[in-house]
Fold:
Amino acid sequence: MSQLSTRHLLGIKDITTEDIQLIFETAQNFKEVLNRPIKKVPSLRDITIANIFFENSTRTRLSFELAEKRLSADVINFSSASSSVKKGETLIDTVNNILSMKVDMVVMRHSSPGSPHFLSKNIKANIINAGDGTHEHPTQALLDAFSIREKLGDVAGKKVAIIGDILHSRVALSNIFCLQKLGAEVMVCGPITLLPKHIASLGVKVEYDVQKALEWCDVANVLRIQLERQQIKYFPSLREYSLYFGVNKKMLDRLDKEIVIMHPGPINRGVELNSDVADSEHSIILNQVENGVAIRMAVLYLLAGVK
Amino acid sequence: MAILFKSLRLIDAETIHPPKDYMYDGEQIQVLNPKIDKEFDEEFDCADLLASKGWIDLRCMCGEPGLEFKESIESLGAVLQESGFCKGVLMPNTEPSIQSKNEVQFLKNRSQNLFSDFLIQGAATKNNEGEDFTEILDLHNEGVTIFGDGIKPLSNPDRLLKVLQYLQKFDGTLFDQSYDPLIALFGHVHEGTTSTIIGVKGIPSLSEELAVRRNVEILRYTGGRMHFQTISTKGAVDIIREAKKDGLNVTADISIFQLMFSDEDLIDFDTNLKVMPPFRSKSDREALIGGLKDGTIDAIVSNHQPQDKDSKHMEFDLASFGMIGLQTFLPAMVKLSLELTWPLLIQKITSGPERVLRSKETKFNTLTVFDPELDWDYNLSSNKSNSSNSPWFDQKLTGKVKYVVNGAKFVKIHE
Structure:
């Protein structure tokens, strides 16, 4: 197989395991390219890509932009933390205005779950979901699984604990779908108010004690507390959260095994993750960032080939 | 006017009667006496058709005044007529709300020449905000006997208690779509596996069950009459069944679409399926079916809520709640008739709503005749509503109303 089964990347739940494997193989090749002295390839020459970000983003937008430039695509950026809707313009109008400048692909981040799906039914360009509210963040899940594979050799059979604010996390949902498709066992762990009530129906283990989750897993993916997405109170204070749900070096020292620590960034240091863990030999956080560019290059390259 | 309906099979709450000839004399419908030699203005062969007393919808929304672009009085009248409904109870959620004599008189004047009759649910609180009472007795003097805040629940227990007490002066009924708005806060779909998969905040069944339980207990304290609208959960069915057994004056209805869809259908973020209460689980649907069969649920309603394109063609969480449901009501019943009997279905839109309205009509002066097998295209040209927010729009549907009698009025919908 050399082509994806879909012309958009809307979410991990919409793609096949074969798609994921193809993205990994392609990303592996691009990663080699990224380590060459000349890091640019002409694969997407004459392809125009619009990065449309209706929510604040630094690393995801930079990662996409770098991936696009490494592939020689023409890139335009549109950022609006306060979405155009507030100015009276609808999402469709905003995107169509941009598309009328002859854009081939759209990378979009938006606070509304399902907004890339909505767009995909109404515009012609290929769409890549760069995070839609509390729904999915597929390229993050792909780079996370790719990084696990790189570190541990395989994803299948591995135990991955996702720790933190699962309720507001698009990373958690995409990770669950991706890891399960690749044969990993998944656990979610956090305060009960930050775990979706029906999360166990997705076939994941549920744990409320972080130390126990660390004891169970091979990989701990610690998530950021999404204070900006919490519309109501879910826990008493950041202090209490960090005391009872944060991951620190002492907890890792109690384990008599190797463990891999991941975080999608940006880290709230001292809240969900202490610096003595984030910067430790267990952490592959910066590898994740590096792999993010290769994964995004692979996704862009493969989608450009799907008509 | 004299019309003959030949070989018509009439459905009532009990049975489907064998085919008979019925005559309509401009006032009433009766079985034709073959001994009487009578000339008819029109004769219709109804051998393949079914019929019942005229249908009643206890919950539909008109946009006028204020939101005519969604549905005007005229367009809602056309939709009710086309769909076979002789009566529709209008919700008060207009701009301004139906909350004073002025709005009631306006609605009466504007609807007097329509085929179908409009009944009015008067606002229980000003602007349906759940705080200050409207002038309920003054509204009653204009003929309003049903009060409620329409699509908004009376969530303040003290307000609900006082309204239930106040209505007893004229034996009025409180209509309420009961749910706890704080438990449902920021929710868009039923809380369950699907809401988890699509990452959309869910509305737990608990929000409805808590409010229905609380309101039943308040009713037990105050006395009076209460009608629960569009219940959707197993828990609510159980609580209302118990309340009826205890002898409380409680009735209930469900939206017909609650039987046609489940929360699993929301997987593709179709905003036309975003409704309140949300589509629940399949086990809730089973409980609703049980409630229909044992009489816990008295009526099925269209819950017709027109929304213009700009309120629906957008991001899921920003889109408005609601679906239009009148012209698709018969096609929905046709689908349900594979599972439920026609007498049961017809009961829920005739004698059931009459019981809720306490308007038992002794005369046989309304009639809805329909073809349960006729296919038709539901599209821009057949749509009578100002809105098109239906998941069935642009589809071929089965089941079409043919003729309707409403007292002295007769209309041919389809020949």
